[in-house]
Amino acid sequence: MLASEKLAIAAHLHVLMRRKVGRVTDTEWLASNAEYAAAMVRLARQAAAEGGHADLAEWADKLAQCWEPAPAKPVSALPGLGRAWVGGAVRNEPVSPDPEAPRYIGGLR
Length: 109
Description:
Layout: H1 3-20, H2 27-32, H3 34-51, H4 54-67, E1 81-86, E2 89-94
Antiparallel strand pairs: 1-2
Helix pairs in contact: 1-4, 3-4
Region (Disordered): 89-109
């Protein structure tokens, strides 16, 4: 997730917490410090449960998801690699570009 997306979610949660709970948070710190974000997520979820604020819980969940580690990409998803059966096992091998594909030839004039 991009830092700007994380900051946008943190800002939205900040506004909701200020309006509904009366709690002021540090938006930049929410987007850059996992411990502070986890503490504010717990506080937001608790306030949402007590006050019946479903949108507060929703945005707390979004911020929590920002801090979860991203799943690793499978090797076959990397550009330039394809799969080939070799000796009964799958191996990743470089894939040559299609010779029939149109290409830009020339330079800037």
